[in-house]
Amino acid sequence: MLVVQKYGGTSVADADRIRHVAGRVVKRVRAGDQVVVVVSAMGNTTDELIDLALSITPEPDPRELDILLSTGEQMSIALVAMALRALGQDAVGLTGQQAGIYTRANYGSGRIARVEAERIKFELAAGRVPIIAGFQGVTDEQEIVTLGRGASDTTAVALAIALGADRCENCKDVEGVYTADPRLVPTARRLADITYEEMLELATQGSQVMHNRAVELASVYGIPVLVTSSMVDAPGTLIHGDPEQMEERNRVRGIAHDTDVAKITVRGVPDKPGIAADIFEPLAAAGVSVDTIVQNASERDLTDLTFTISRKDLKRAESLMTGICSDVGAAGFAADGNLGKVSIVGVGIQTAQGYAARMFRSLSDHGINIEMISTSEIRLTCIIDAERVADAVRVLHDAFELERAE
Ligand code: ASP
Ligand code: MG
């Protein structure tokens, strides 16, 4: 089988781990599989490079910053390729450009436009293991662009699609996707499998297991992704789109949490067409991305509107709100920067009875106040105090009996 294996920063954090990864790849190749490897930068290299740039200037030029950040993954490909050769396995490190990964859009947030995979195929045919730098590509003008934090996962899925691989394997320092973060819930259980939809919701709602764009891409092309350990031999969690299994299901599969939530409430907003656009357009223009939005039914033509954003964007958003309020004729605004969210996810939970009630009751039984609620077809999310997020995850894991085998 042809497989694309991705190893994250923790899995290649030092020389020993790199040798260990090389050993696993060699074993796989000797077992008869064709392997293409995608790697992230070692450990915290990307953070360190960003800090280094910030120590030169508070606003590094985005183009030069991308050139700098792309070197993190380049270190990894060279070292992993060396480690493979040291084990007697021919291998070749390829930068995003050499691997034919073409991107569009902006520095720091590029999107993969296409993969010209001839070079990779050539190396494979010659018996060499291609080791590809994740998180980077080039524009048609050969400008280096990075793909956004954590986006090596996306590189791996895009390559699996371009190569027609049998599957993508995301090799991590955890053994798969769990019912909740095992660091918070000791009884959290590894899931044998999960659907794209469920994984996408978990990833978007704060689960760190896989980059949400990678899941989205895998889902569009129907490429199976196995999340598994880079350290030990483990069965992992298969992410797939098997509709039959989805119909069977009617329960909570996992809990995601995120402690990075801030909230802004705009009071006394005139209830007329165009107001919401007037509020959100300036925020979007300033690069503030808005998550949950709740608008109350209006009384006497005035309404309150509440929305959440990432805490890191709060200062920027607040600085715009005074102007926005006077532009739309709102009474004023209030901000709270210390919130988090907890979500239950599972295909079928919206159509089934009682999930919402059980979630709200369990939280209230433990004195956890719900500030906002949002839902999708397969998710229920409560915005709560950041300090209570860990408790809430444990409470809900118990309430929905997620420790029990399916
Ligand atoms: N090295 C990049 C980051 O830390 C990409 C990745 O790890 O996926 O964001
Ligand atoms: Mg990283």
Summary keywords:
single chain, 406 residues, alpha/beta, Carbamate kinase, VC0802-like, 2 domains, eight-stranded mixed β-sheet, six-stranded antiparallel β-sheet, 12 helices, globular, binds aspartic acid, binds magnesium ion
What is this structure, in a nutshell?
36% of the residues lie in helices and 27% in strands.
Explain how this protein is built.
The chain has 406 residues and is an alpha/beta fold. It has two domains: 2-173, Carbamate kinase, CATH 3.40.1160; 254-399, VC0802-like. Helices cover 36% and strands 27% of the residues. The strands form four sheets. An eight-stranded mixed beta sheet has the order 3-6-2-1-9-11-12-10, with helices on both faces. The model has no long low-confidence stretch (mean pLDDT 94). Bound molecules: aspartic acid (ASP) and magnesium ion.
The CATH topology annotation of the largest domain reads as Carbamate kinase
**Can you tell me the number of structural domains?**
2
Helical proportion, percent range: 25-40%
Oligomer: single chain
Number of continuous helical runs: 12
CATH superfamily of the largest domain: Acetylglutamate kinase-like
The averaged pLDDT comes out at 94
N-to-C SSE series?
EHEHHEEEHEEEHEEHHEEHEHEEHEHEEH
Beta percentage is 25-35%
Strand order of the largest sheet: 3-6-2-1-9-11-12-10
The parts where pLDDT drops under 50 for at least 5 residues are none
User: What structural class should be given to the helix and strand makeup?
Assistant: alpha/beta
Number of strands: 18
Looking at the structure, what is the overall shape? globular
Name of the CATH architecture of the largest domain: 3-Layer(aba) Sandwich
Bound molecules: aspartic acid, magnesium ion
